[in-house]
Write a structure and sequence with these properties.
Order of helices and strands: EHEHEEEEEEEHEHHEHEEEEE
CATH topology: Deoxyribonuclease I, Chain A
Strand order of the largest sheet: 3-4-2-1-16-15
CATH class: Alpha Beta
Largest sheet: 6 strands, mixed
Number of strands: 16
Number of domains: 1
């Protein structure tokens, strides 16, 4: 029986690691690990996405246990990127659709390396390698999916410095921003290689660690055409532009309540799903369109207002799920 929609999600797992194995010089005990597996798998069952991009996976076997516990992904493909050289977590992808191609990208494309006034910026690798996969939705339709986790806003400080010193902290935040901007630029170049001159849809998702209107996010999506441009110039820009499902939902809804993280009383949108023009309703040549976007953030707590805390087994991020309606159905059992 054919189905005319599929669901895509991004899910920051907050340090999914096997019990007793170190991560960030910490360990997870057996009881906490079991609660974490139960919590994540219950969310997956409830959200029921067909394609999920994960962040903060320390051990692939832990993700495999989660997917098994979810019980609804018996024949799904589980792809996990290599962990970065510093031992941090990796990104992953779970898909109910067949995978026709997959690679993990750690190094920036050479043409994306930055220089300022003739001086090279010494950032040449993603802090967490990017996962890219081509998924076959049907015999006629494939989609290329990118899963990324860009550098956090946490200040990048030399060892031994006082993180509460405002001068030291300002420099640390600037370093983090430079790294994140370099990563966004490199990811944009990878996306352009896939987007330019094609009619195949592209989805990029993950914890991008910045709001949708930030400079780094705008680097990723590209520039929308100016209304007075000639049509062929607009078409060239539309071909490589990405659309944040947050903005698509905001234009369809009376109220915007999109946030995926709370830090020190600030409600931020750090987790995003971006789609190419092939999944935008206004495109007359669309293959489908984003129909509905939902953010699962009820578990988040504003710790400046409450003595409650997010449990150790829960995520400190909300999950974003986008339903994409297709113009033609997907065959198969669902």
């Amino acid at each position: 029986m054919a189905r005319k929609f599929f669901k895509v999600a991004t899910f920051n797992l907050l340090n999914l690691a096997m019990p007793g194995q170190p991560y960030y010089n910490l360990t997870c005990d057996e009881a906490t690990y079991k609660r974490k597996v139960e919590w994540i798998s219950a969310h997956l069952r409830y959200m029921n996405p067909d394609i999920v991009g994960f962040q903060e996976v320390f051990h692939p076997e832990a993700l495999e246990e989660v997917i098994t516990a979810a019980t609804t992904y018996q024949n799904a493909n589980i792809l996990v990127a290599d962990r970065p050289e510093d031992g941090g977590p990796s990104v992953a992808l779970v898909s109910r659709f067949p995978v026709s191609d997959m690679d993990v990208i750690a190094d920036f494309p050479e043409q994306a390396l930055l220089e300022i006034d003739g001086m090279n910026v010494p950032i040449k690798k993603f802090s967490r390698p990017v996962l890219r996969a081509k998924l076959r939705l049907s015999d006629e339709l494939s989609v290329t999916v990118y899963v990324a986790h860009l550098k956090s806003k946490r200040p990048k400080l030399p060892d031994g410095t006082n993180q509460h010193d405002p001068r030291v902290r300002s420099m640390g935040e600037a370093r983090s921003l430079i790294v994140r901007a370099a990563e966004a630029t490199a990811l944009r170049h990878l996306l352009l290689d896939t987007l330019e001159g094609t009619t195949y849809p592209v989805i990029a998702m993950g914890d991008l660690n910045d709001d949708g209107e930030s400079v780094t996010s705008r680097i990723l999506v590209g520039e929308e055409p100016w209304r007075n441009l000639k049509l062929h110039d607009k078409q060239r820009l539309w071909d490589v532009h990405l659309y944040n499902v947050k903005d698509i939902q905001a234009r369809q809804s009376y109220r915007d309540v999109y946030y995926t993280h709370i830090h020190n009383g600030h409600y931020d949108s750090l987790d995003h799903i971006l789609v190419s023009q092939e999944f935008v309703r206004q495109n007359p040549q669309r293959l489908g369109y984003v129909e509905y976007v939902r953010v699962f953030n009820d578990h988040l707590i504003d710790e400046t207002l409450s003595d409650d805390r997010v449990p150790r087994w829960a995520s400190d991020h909300g999950q974003v799920v986008a339903t994409i309606q297709l113009e033609r159905g997907i065959p198969g059992e669902w």
